[in-house]
Structures are given as structure tokens and as C-alpha cells.
Design brief:
3 domains; Arc Repressor Mutant, subunit A; 369 residues
Length: 369
């Protein structure tokens, strides 16, 4: 008899009757089954058939073991217990035609055989090349659009998408904004958030600001560490491209109203754009920002947001929350901004504290050991 059970193999050649003791039990089967199973999981498919359990198969047998703990288990002179591959596998099939068409075009784009702005073959041309109907080609084009590789459709020819201008938003800007607080007014008036982040000027954008004093929602109160319903100054900014009205930037900020009441001008949206930005505004009421926490997440846009930002299908939005902490450990502002992921790069720079003065490390491996 030979059994192989999940990495454990035992072999015995003997007459079945010699191995079945007076109590009706089989030593070989008892030892093997004890390793991997119990009677509760045994599936009996017939007294003269095959038994299955967790990938184990007992072939058809000659006699039934009489031991109570193995009732229904069959043994025979050459019974074989084998382990079946525990991982289920899908049947290997060729990729669908529409995926093969999309992959072929994608590779041509990534290899720069088709450059940004180049026209793709027409749907009818590709259908003739692939000897297929028009539908697989249309589906392939839809796949490429969701990957942000092509544009077109609705009567317009499909072309390789030209990547949009990418805006770099670096964590270094927080220190730049803080340094501006101490700069002369003339310098502060020339450089602001728009200039630092988008490398453009306010004059090149349609700029809109809305200020309101509102009760803090539960979420805003929790983020700021203030009482639910406490008054906050809510400031919303929107920058639009003058050429087509496409949104270029959007953010909303919340500041506890009690922290800034000493300067009424901070509640006036007519003061925008404020030379030096938010950190200078806070400095006028004795607040110095000592720590900035950036939290970044992503989500898919609604159809309304996709239209506002002129987003192609499949492009997610980045949601960036900036939390400003002052010299007393208070959270003095939270600012939530959204950016299209296909035209935004986030750079995070982390200064590290130097080690205490010590000799320069020697080259090569340590001598210890």
C-alpha cells in the first residue's frame, strides 16, 4: 500500500486482511488519516466508490473498516491516497480581441511610434487589419481612453493624448511661505501661493474667493480640536483658466474664528489676494505656524467635477489636507485642496536631524565580528 498526504508519504505492501486488526481498524489508514482529517469532514460517495476530503482521494475499495471512528472508510490492498493541488486555477485562454487591439496600440504609444497629437488608425482601418467587426475596435478605444492615452470620439478622430502641464507641489513651500512673513511688503506682494505652486501669477488666472463665518461641522471640529458648532472662518478659493474657464485650482480653508478676532480684516474677502498668504495673515494676530501636516488621499471625480476640471475618463483626483499647528500646539487651520492626478506631482521633502558630532565612518566593513 502507498499513500501520499500533503508532503507526508508512507508505503506498505501487505495483504489487507493482515493489516486490519481484530477491531476492524487499519493501522496504515489510521496513521495517514489522523494527520489530516476527521470523520466530520469525510464525504462518502458510496461503499464501492471514491471518497474525497480536502483534496484527498481514496480510490474504490474492497472492504469497509469496521472501527467506529472510521465508519464508511474503505481499504484495499493497493488503495492510494493522493494530494490534489490546493490552489484552484482558471483555464488558460487567449486575451479577448479588444484587449489585444488595445495593447497593440498602447505599446505603439509607449514606444513613441505614435507621438502625442498623432492620429490613430480609424476604426474601419483597424477592423480590416484585425479582420473583425467594428465593436471590438470601439471597445479597445474605450480602454485606451480610460488609461488616459487617447482622446477623441463623438465624431472627432482619435488622437494620442498630449499630456497636460504638470504642476509640482512641494512640501518646501511651507517654509517658503513662512520666510515670506518677514519679507518686505513689496516682496510679499509679488509672490503668493499661486506663484509658488503653479509657477504662474494671479493675473494669469480668474480668481474667486468666498468668505463665510459658519458653525463647525462635526468633521471640521474634530480636525481642528475645537467644540462642535464653534464658529470658524470658511474660505473657498477657485482659480479658473481665462482661456476656456477650466478650473485650475480649488481649496477650502477653516480657521477657528476665536483665534483671529483681533484682526477684523482677516474676515474680509476683499483683502484677497493677501500679500504673503495665510501664514502672514495669522502672524498679525500673534500666531506662528510651527508644524504643517499634509494628508493625501485619492478619489474618482463626479461627472460634474470631471467637466469642471476637463478630465478625461479614468483620471482620479488627489485630495490634499494641510493642517497648520501653532507655537502652542493648537491646530489653527485646516485647508483641503483638490488636484487632478494627471497634471499634479507631489514632492515631499523631509529634513533629517544630524547625528551628534562623531568621527567620519571608515570605508569598508566594520571590523567587529
Amino acid at each position: 500500500m502507498s499513500q501520499s498526504i500533503v508532503g507526508f508519504t508512507t508505503s506498505a505492501r501487505t495483504d489487507a486482511s493482515a493489516r486490519v486488526g481484530a477491531d476492524g481498524s487499519s493501522d496504515v489508514l489510521r496513521d495517514a488519516f489522523t494527520l489530516v482529517m476527521s470523520r466530520a469532514f469525510l464525504l462518502n460517495t458510496g461503499a464501492y466508490g471514491r471518497f474525497k476530503f480536502a483534496g484527498l482521494h481514496v480510490n474504490r475499495c474492497d472492504r469497509t473498516v469496521a472501527a467506529p471512528e472510521w465508519q464508511g472508510v474503505c481499504v484495499q490492498t493497493s488503495a492510494r491516497i493522493r494530494a490534489v493541488d490546493p490552489e484552484p486555477r482558471l483555464t488558460a485562454v487567449p486575451a479577448p480581441l479588444q484587449l489585444r487591439i488595445a495593447d497593440d496600440l498602447r505599446l505603439r504609444i509607449e514606444r513613441r511610434d505614435l507621438a502625442p497629437g498623432d492620429s490613430l488608425p480609424t476604426i474601419h482601418q483597424l477592423a480590416r487589419t484585425w479582420e473583425c467587426s467594428l465593436n471590438p475596435v470601439r471597445v479597445a478605444f474605450d480602454l485606451l481612453k480610460t488609461q488616459g492615452l487617447i482622446t477623441g470620439g463623438r465624431g472627432k478622430p482619435a488622437v494620442v493624448r498630449t499630456p497636460p502641464r504638470q504642476v509640482v507641489r512641494s512640501s518646501l513651500r511651507h517654509q517658503q511661505e513662512k520666510d515670506l512673513v518677514l519679507a518686505p511688503l513689496a516682496e510679499r506682494a509679488q509672490v503668493g501661493t499661486a506663484e509658488i505652486e503653479s509657477k504662474t501669477t494671479i493675473r494669469d488666472l480668474r480668481f474667486r474667493t468666498v468668505y463665510d463665518v459658519v458653525p463647525a461641522t462635526d468633521a471640521v471640529a474634530a480636525a481642528l480640536g475645537i467644540a462642535d458648532g464653534a464658529e470658524v472662518l470658511r474660505r473657498a478659493w477657485e482659480h479658473l483658466n481665462p482661456a476656456g474657464g477650466v478650473r485650475e485650482a480649488w481649496s477650502v480653508s477653516h480657521i477657528p474664528a476665536d483665534y483671529i478676532r483681533d484682526n477684523p480684516r482677516l474676515f474680509d474677502s476683499g483683502s484677497e489676494p493677501w500679500p504673503g498668504g495665510t501664514q502672514h495673515q495669522l502672524s498679525t494676530v500673534g500666531i506662528e505656524v510651527m508644524q504643517v501636516i499634509d494628508e493625501v488621499s485619492a478619489h474618482m471625480p463626479s461627472t460634474a467635477d470631471a467637466a469642471l476640471w476637463d478630465l478625461p475618463p479614468g483620471v482620479p483626483m488627489l485630495r490634499c489636507r494641510r493642517i497648520s499647528v501653532d507655537q502652542y500646539g493648537r491646530r489653527v487651520e485646516i485647508s483641503d485642496a483638490e488636484y487632478p492626478a494627471d497634471r499634479t506631482r507631489l514632492d515631499f521633502v523631509t529634513p533629517l536631524t544630524a547625528w551628534p558630532s562623531q568621527p567620519a565612518p571608515s570605508s569598508g566593513h566594520d571590523d567587529a565580528g
